[in-house]
Fold:
Amino acid sequence: MGVSLIFKIAAVGILVTILSQILKHSGREEHSFLISLAGLVLVLSWIVPYIYELFETIQALFAL
Structure:
């Protein structure tokens, strides 16, 4: 896992926060929720391969 992934996650977090605040102040709470959910799904899609690799390593370590 590189530093670039951490910067990507931070950038998505900042962008989602700004968009959510703008949408909440304009009275579109539903859209704000959907933006937050989309950001979460995007970040999870980036992280899932690393979690899978972690479980593979732990499984190989303990030979399960």
The helical segments are 3-25, 29-62. Residues 2 and 8 are 10 Å apart (CA to CA). DSSP finds two helices and no strands in the chain. The longest helix spans residues 29-62.
